[in-house]
């Protein structure tokens, strides 16, 4: 510093003391400056005050000499003290050089800068608020300072500034949010702690509505929640919990839509705490916003569905994800299907203030924290909280996006069992609520649903068929057809009698629509290509179809398709499977009774259709004749067996037939053995089977049965008596 330079009105002694390396001397100089400035204030000499501040800033605080900078800082603080309530007029000039020293390489100088700013802010109080952003920016840097003394000084200044903000009603939140949004992404732990502490303070001030700007900082908050420091994570949990409490109290002022995608992202986080917290928020959003969340359904499902397969290690996330999934499903209503032809978005009803109060009162027992993972929240019905002045809210169900997500999870080999089951339940629900819109996805969904029958999980394949109270998604998917004359109507004709219309039908199955017939064709193709599926689940699948749909149509269509099957071995195996189901399943009791008597044209037509395909397997053909009491034809067929190649498989099937004859299903047949005169061909057919069998347990069983047949002469004598 040039000693000959004129620093007036500062005296040479003050200048020397400000440049001294000893703190005591610089302090004496500061007292002199304070006295000098007080005189200028008394004289109302604004020019002189500005000149003193300018000298202290340019020549000292911003000097290249470290001791001069220290002197300039203490001098500026002295000016502020002397100015008192008038310091607000000069704050820009006082603060800027001090903040510049926050970046100094000397930790002692950074500490003195912090001390000087503390004194300036303490005097100015609320007048510093217009300069809050630059102060916050400087403090956020000092919060991460490696020197403990500097950090301690910055904490004192930070507390002072928080007190000022808390007691003032002039805080400019709008201008602060961009800075907060920028700094919230800091990776430094101390900076994060500083940010969270300020968010908590601002949230606690009644006159500051930080909730309006939550979409700006929510993503950053969730990132801080993943910090390695337990203390910071806990602070962030508290902050998020306070926001969630505020959301529940004032849902009408919440920008749910702007935060939905943020939650979707963090619901997929690898960090358990982030994922659990985001999922809890998502649960509350669906509950509070209702159908407002529908446009984000595909993203929500992308995040939620994988969580449904979590094990006990993540059972809290699993529990909340289940609630989210069920609640979101309830938002899809039939009205979402009705707007398909109108090209208009759906309408979500908005409750009155009374409705809001009632719904909120039901949630009083629910914890206000963001980690409330209980399923006890009121999810029985979903309500939408919006201003009472708004009567209708336009929302759109992105069905294409939802179906795409569901389809991806079905194709994902790594998806868990419960995830796949949830996907099937969603498809079933969508076909129930929005059948017209889902109709266009039928052809694309059907192959993967059919493939799901081969799922390694029995629960998944069972749910594919059962799905809901009557039909699973695979059946729903093929039960829908639409009349061109009535585009709004839905006709469910899978396996049920209905109008013939203009649908493409099999000539021999006039009551079945084309989709049903295609379904049967594809199902048999699946059985043909995956013999293990036929062996392990074939009977179960067919029994479920017969239970849920029309058993007669099931057998009629399969028999008709098998009649044209080129793979004769598969046709024989499939016929044997169908025959076993027909003769043993309780679900087919009515169909068996229908075939037993052949009293109606329909039953006779069914018998003829079955017979043609049953001829793929000689033994099953005989069993069908036994079932329908065509004993003479059964005897004629057995006579022809002598011309066939008798293999081990053939004998095994005969063995099984003998076992079936001893079952309750053929009780009527065994009783008919008493009437020898009326049923000679039945006895002959049974003896024919006996002659085919080698000496085995089945041979002994049938032989013992035939030994019980009464002597015709004795029966005639008894009748004569």
TrEMBL record:
GO terms for biological process: phosphatidylinositol biosynthetic process. Keywords: Endoplasmic reticulum, Endosome, Membrane, Microsome, Repeat. Transmembrane segments: none annotated. The keyword Endoplasmic reticulum applies. Residues 531-709 form the Vacuolar protein 14 C-terminal Fig4-binding domain. Its main location: membrane. GO terms for cellular component: endosome membrane; PAS complex. The keyword Repeat applies. Signal peptide: none annotated. It is found in: Endosome membrane; Microsome membrane. Residues 340-368 are annotated as: Disordered. InterPro entries: ARM-like, ARM-type_fold, Vac14, VAC14_Fig4p-bd. Scaffold protein component of the PI(3,5)P2 regulatory complex which regulates both the synthesis and turnover of phosphatidylinositol 3,5-bisphosphate (PtdIns(3,5)P2). Pentamerizes into a star-shaped structure and nucleates the assembly of the complex. The pentamer binds a single copy each of PIKFYVE and FIG4 and coordinates both PIKfyve kinase activity and FIG4 phosphatase activity, being required to maintain normal levels of phosphatidylinositol 3-phosphate (PtdIns(3)P) and phosphatidylinositol 5-phosphate (PtdIns(5)P). Forms pentamers. Component of the PI(3,5)P2 regulatory complex/PAS complex, at least composed of PIKFYVE, FIG4 and VAC14. VAC14 nucleates the assembly of the complex and serves as a scaffold by pentamerizing into a star-shaped structure, which can bind a single copy each of PIKFYVE and FIG4 and coordinates their activities. Interacts with NOS1. Belongs to the VAC14 family. This is Protein VAC14 homolog. It comes from Anolis carolinensis. The gene is VAC14.
């Amino acid at each position: 510093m040039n000693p000959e330079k004129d620093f007036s009105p500062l005296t040479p002694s003050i200048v020397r003391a400000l440049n001294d390396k000893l703190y005591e001397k610089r302090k004496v100089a500061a007292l002199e400056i304070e006295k000098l400035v007080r005189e200028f204030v008394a004289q109302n000499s604004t020019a002189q005050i500005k000149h003193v501040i300018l000298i202290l800033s340019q020549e000292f605080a911003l000097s290249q000499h470290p001791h001069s900078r220290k002197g300039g800082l203490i001098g500026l603080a002295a000016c502020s003290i002397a100015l008192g309530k008038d310091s607000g007029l000069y704050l820009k000039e006082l603060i800027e050089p001090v903040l510049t020293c926050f970046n100094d390489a000397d930790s002692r100088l950074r500490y003195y800068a912090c001390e000087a700013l503390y004194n300036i802010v303490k005097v100015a109080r609320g007048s510093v608020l217009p300069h809050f952003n630059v102060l916050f920016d400087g403090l956020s840097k000092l919060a991460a300072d490696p020197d403990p003394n500097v950090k301690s000084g910055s904490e004192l200044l930070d507390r002072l500034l928080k007190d000022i903000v808390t007691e003032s009603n002039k805080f400019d939140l709008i201008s602060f949010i961009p800075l907060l949004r920028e700094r919230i992404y800091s990776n430094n732990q101390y900076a994060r702690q500083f940010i969270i502490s300020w968010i908590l303070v601002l949230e606690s001030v009644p006159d500051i509505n930080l909730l309006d700007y939550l979409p700006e900082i929510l993503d950053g908050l969730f990132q801080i929640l993943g910090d390695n420091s337990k203390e910071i994570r806990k602070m962030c949990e508290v902050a998020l919990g306070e926001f969630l409490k505020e959301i529940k109290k004032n849902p009408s002022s919440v920008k749910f839509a702007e935060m939905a995608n943020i939650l979707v992202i963090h619901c997929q986080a690898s960090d358990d705490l982030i994922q659990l917290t985001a999922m809890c928020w998502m649960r509350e959003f669906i509950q509070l916003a209702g159908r407002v969340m529908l446009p984000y359904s595909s993203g929500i499902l992308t995040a939620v569905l994988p969580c449904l397969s979590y094990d006990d290690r993540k059972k809290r996330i699993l529990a909340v994800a289940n609630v989210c999934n069920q609640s979101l499903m309830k938002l899809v209503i039939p009205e979402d299907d009705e707007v398909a032809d109108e090209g208009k978005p759906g309408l979500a009803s908005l409750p009155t203030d009374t409705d809001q109060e009632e719904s909120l009162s039901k949630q009083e027992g629910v914890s206000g924290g963001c980690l409330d993972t209980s399923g006890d929240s009121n999810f029985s019905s979903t309500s939408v909280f919006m201003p009472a002045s708004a009567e209708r809210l336009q929302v759109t169900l992105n069905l294409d996006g939802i179906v795409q997500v569901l389809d991806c999870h079905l194709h994902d080999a790594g998806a868990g069992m419960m995830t796949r089951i949830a996907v099937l339940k969603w498809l079933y629900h969508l076909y129930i609520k929005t059948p017209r819109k889902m109709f266009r996805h039928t052809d694309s969904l059907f192959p993967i649903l059919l493939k799901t029958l081969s799922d390694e999980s029995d629960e998944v394949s069972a749910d594919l068929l059962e799905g809901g109270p009557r039909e699973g998604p695979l059946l729903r998917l093929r039960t829908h057809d639409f009349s061109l004359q009535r585009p709004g109507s839905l006709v469910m004709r899978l396996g049920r009698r209905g109008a013939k219309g203009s649908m493409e039908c099999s000539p021999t199955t006039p009551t079945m629509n084309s989709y049903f017939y295609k379904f049967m064709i594809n199902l048999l193709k699946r059985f043909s290509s995956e013999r293990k599926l036929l062996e392990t689940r074939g009977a179960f699948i067919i029994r479920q179809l017969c239970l849920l749909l029309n058993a007669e149509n099931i057998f009629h269509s399969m028999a008709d398709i098998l009649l044209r099957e080129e793979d004769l071995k598969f046709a024989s195996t499939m016929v044997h499977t169908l025959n076993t189901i027909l003769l043993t399943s309780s679900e087919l009791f009515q169909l068996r009774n229908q075939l037993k008597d052949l009293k109606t044209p329909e039953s006779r037509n069914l018998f003829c259709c079955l017979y043609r395909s049953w001829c793929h397997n000689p033994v099953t053909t005989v069993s069908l004749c036994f079932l329908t009491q065509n004993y003479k034809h059964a005897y004629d067929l057995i006579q022809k067996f002598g011309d066939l190649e008798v293999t081990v498989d053939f004998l095994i099937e005969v063995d099984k037939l003998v076992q079936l004859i001893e079952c309750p299903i053929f009780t009527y047949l065994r009783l008919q053995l008493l009437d020898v005169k009326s049923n000679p061909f039945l006895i002959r057919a049974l003896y024919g089977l006996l002659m085919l069998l080698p000496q085995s347990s089945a041979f002994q069983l049938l032989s013992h049965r035939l030994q019980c047949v009464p002597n015709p002469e004795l029966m005639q004598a008894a009748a004569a008596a």
